[in-house]
Each structure stands twice: as C-alpha cells, then as structure tokens.
C-alpha cells in the first residue's frame, strides 16, 4: 500500500549541505522559513500507516529499501510532513528521527519529484 | 505603553538529555517562547512561558524575528532543528534526548542547547521584574495551548509502533531498534 505520498514543491538553498552527508530532509510546506532553507518542501498530507523496516521510499522511479525507523520518525511525518532519510545502509538508527535506507546513489530531487512511501 | 512581568528560569537537561543548563530571561522586545513542534504549543513551551512571563507562539502558524525570541522549543529527532536554532544564535530546548549530531553539530554547544527536557526540568531562579512594554511592538494575543494534539499524535504513533514490535515476524529487527 501507499503509506505516504507527496510532490516536491520547493528546494531550500542549503539542502545540498545535508545531501553532502547523504541526508535528505523533507518538511511540509508550512515549515518556518529557517527550516525551509535546509529542507525539501512538499505537499504531502496524511500518513496512512506507520513507516517500518522493509518499506520502500520512492523518489520518482528510484526506490530505497527502509532498514531502520527511529522512534519519533513516524510522529514527525504525521505531524509536520517531516522526514529525515539517511542514505547510509545502517540497520540501526543513530538518532530518534532517522529513517535509514539502503546505500546507493542519491536520487535527483527537483520541484515536481513524486515522493512515496510504500509497504505492507 | 503597558507593563509586563518577567522572571528568570533555569532549564536543565532531562533524563538522558545533554547540554545546558540554560538561563532564560525574557525581556521587552525579546520575550517570545518559539515553539517549533507542530500541532500548537507544546507543554514545555507553555510551562516556560508561564514561569518566565514570556509569550509562547507556534512557529508553524506564525513568524517572529530571531532577535525577538528568548528561547526556541523543538521536538527534533537529531538532524535539522537541533542545529538550525543554535546556528542562528537562539537558545534551544529539545524535548527529545538528542546530543550534538547532524551536519550542523558544530553549532550545538552546552551554553545554547539543552535536550531531553520535560516540564519538571524548568525552575524559577529569579524574582518577577516589571518592565515597560511598547504595545505597538508586542503582540499580546495569548497563544492557545493545544498540547493534547501533539501528545495524542505521539502516543498514537508509539502505541502503533508497540503493536508492530509485538508482531512476531518483525520481532527480531524491531526488538533491536526499540530495545524491546
């Protein structure tokens, strides 16, 4: 099932600072300006089911298998449209907000990119 | 002009928290308790406002300049918000027990950041001081306390995560992740 879906509406000028660390930071469109600077903003609304290991995060046609989900990651996504994707191949989270996914080349993300979380 | 009362509060790190203690003393023109948790005013922000005389407001529904903010209250899981406010020179209180991390970790210092904070980690350390306030510059509208919403969302998520932990086929992996 599709657990969450969104379309990228803006990309902050400092997003690349996080991409350099293989971290993708998403926020809903009502994020305050200082967070929007670092974030990929999107129009996602409702989290249909909790994200969990084994799910896939899609950026257009590229998927990343979810390996670990921090204890506050789902609340962040449901509440703020906020998702921190760490493309690091780790099976244990470092921080409670993290969603760790398989390590592979970062996707191209631009305004209009479709973001989805799919899983059982 | 009108009068407002402020007093100094001390905020210490909570259980498993890091950094601080921070002393927060709102003053005219810099008395906002900036809540960046979504879903309204978090109880920690409401408590800081109540004890210090500051004015809590929700960063997801309105905006103030950084130089008007006495303290920012966040519920960051460790990557973005933990660093953004310290980088901007804003005293930062994280309700989650995070420590310096993320690309902005170098800005996260014990004299500007404290984490793992609950309402019990805030204490009054000064007497009320009366200050003259320019009404044209300060929004007196009290921020609504809709703390239940945040708590409800978190509790629901935690309950569902707990259910997932019980699910036998996922047990090994979840058990490691959630210590359970």
Short account of what is shown:
The complex is a heterodimer of chains A (120) and B (180). Chain A is mainly β and 120 residues long.
What features would you highlight for this structure?
heterodimer; A: 120 residues; mainly beta; 14% helix; 38% strand; globular; B: 180 residues; alpha/beta; 2 domains; 4 helices
Describe the structure.
The complex is a heterodimer of chains A (120) and B (180). In chain A, a hairpin with a 2-residue loop joins strand 4 (56-59) and strand 5. Helix content of chain A is 14%, strand content 38%. Chain A has 120 residues and is mainly beta. Chain A has one domain (2-118): Phosphotransferase system, glucitol/sorbitol-specific IIA component (M1 Pyruvate Kinase, Domain 3). Chain A starts with a strand and ends with a strand. Chain A is built from three helices and eight strands. Chain A has helices at 15-19, 33-36, 73-80; strands spanning 2-11, 23-28, 40-42, 56-59, 62-69, 83-87, 98-101, 114-118. With 180 residues, chain B is α/β, with parallel strands linked by helices. Chain B folds into two domains: 2-143, no CATH class; 146-180. Chain B is built from four helices and ten strands. Chain B has helices spanning 43-52, 81-87, 147-166, 171-178, and strands at 2-6, 9-11, 22-24, 32-36, 55-58, 69-74, 92-94, 113-115, 122-124, 129-133. In chain B, the strands form three sheets. Chain B has a five-stranded parallel sheet with strand order 5-4-6-7-8, with helices on both faces. Residues 146-150 and 164-180 of chain B have low confidence and may be disordered.
Mind sketching the topology for me?
The complex is a heterodimer of chains A (120) and B (180).
Chain A: E1 2-11, H1 15-19, E2 23-28, H2 33-36, E3 40-42, E4 56-59, E5 62-69, H3 73-80, E6 83-87, E7 98-101, E8 114-118
Parallel strand pairs in A: 2-3, 6-7
Antiparallel strand pairs in A: 1-3, 1-8, 2-6, 4-5, 4-8, 5-7
Chain B: E1 2-6, E2 9-11, E3 22-24, E4 32-36, H1 43-52, E5 55-58, E6 69-74, H2 81-87, E7 92-94, E8 113-115, E9 122-124, E10 129-133, H3 147-166, H4 171-178
Parallel strand pairs in B: 4-5, 4-6, 6-7, 7-8
Antiparallel strand pairs in B: 1-10, 2-3, 2-9
């Amino acid at each position: 099932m599709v657990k969450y879906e969104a379309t990228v509406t803006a990309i902050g000028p400092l997003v690349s600072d996080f991409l350099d660390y293989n971290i993708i930071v998403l926020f809903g469109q009502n994020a305050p300006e200082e967070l929007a600077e670092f974030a990929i903003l999107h129009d996602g609304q409702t989290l249909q089911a909790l994200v969990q290991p084994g799910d896939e995060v899609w950026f257009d046609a590229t998927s990343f298998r979810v390996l670990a989900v921090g204890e506050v990651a789902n609340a962040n996504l449901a509440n703020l449209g906020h998702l921190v994707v760490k493309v690091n191949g780790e099976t244990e989270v470092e921080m409670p907000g993290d969603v760790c996914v398989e390590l592979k080349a970062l996707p191209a993300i631009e305004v209009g990119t479709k973001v989805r979380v799919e899983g059982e | 002009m009108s009068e407002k009362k402020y007093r100094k509060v001390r905020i210490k790190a909570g259980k498993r928290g890091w950094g601080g203690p921070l002393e927060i003393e709102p003053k005219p023109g810099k008395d906002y308790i900036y809540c960046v948790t979504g879903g309204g005013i978090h109880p920690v922000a409401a408590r800081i406002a109540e004890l210090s005389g500051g004015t809590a407001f929700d960063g997801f529904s309105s905006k103030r300049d950084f130089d008007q903010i006495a303290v920012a209250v966040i519920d960051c899981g460790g990557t973005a918000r933990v660093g953004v406010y310290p980088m901007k020179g804003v005293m930062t209180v994280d309700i989650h027990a995070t420590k310096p991390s993320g690309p902005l970790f170098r800005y996260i210092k014990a004299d500007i950041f404290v984490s793992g904070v609950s309402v019990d980690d805030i204490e009054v350390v000064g007497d009320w001081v009366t200050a003259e306030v320019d009404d044209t510059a300060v929004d007196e509208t009290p921020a609504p306390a809709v703390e239940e919403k945040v708590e409800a969302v978190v509790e629901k998520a935690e309950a569902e995560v707990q259910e997932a932990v019980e699910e036998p086929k996922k047990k090994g992996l979840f058990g490691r992740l959630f210590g359970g």
